[in-house]
Design goal:
Strand 3 and strand 4 form a beta hairpin. The protein has four helices and four strands. It is an alpha+beta fold and about 120 residues long. It has one domain: Nuclear Transport Factor 2, Chain: A, CATH 3.10.450.
């Protein structure tokens, strides 16, 4: 009887633990996205670059990322709000951003264990 109660309790606690993990992961993505958005809006391109992991930095060096994010702000306007991340995998999320002139969807944002994208 005690063994059955233990399993029932474990099954009741698992969804709560999973929700806590999802909330924690979501918060991690929100924090990284907020830092990147602040840097994009301020056109602080070195700050954006510091948020990149090594692979992203190599794929999009400072000069290229500066042109890209400057063009993004010129075309869409400053980013005003972010919606909550939709987790696509443990290390990947999609975030809808509302800018002055249009909405943007940041897809496949990956955050590594060190908090880099």
């Amino acid at each position: 009887m005690l063994r059955n109660c233990t399993w029932v309790l474990l099954l009741l606690l698992l969804p709560a633990a999973a929700e806590a993990d999802v909330a924690e992961e979501s918060k991690r993505f929100e924090e990284v996205a907020q830092r990147i958005v602040q840097a994009i809006n301020a056109q602080d391109f070195p700050a954006i670059q510091r948020e990149f992991n090594r692979q992203m930095s190599e794929a999009m060096p400072l000069e290229e990322s500066s042109r890209f994010f400057s063009g993004l702000v010129n075309h869409f306007g400053k980013i005003e709000t972010l919606e909550s991340p939709r987790l696509a995998a443990p290390d990947r999320a999609e975030i809808l951003a509302h800018a002055t002139r249009s909405d943007l969807e940041f897809t496949k944002i990956t955050v590594t264990g060190d908090g880099k994208s």
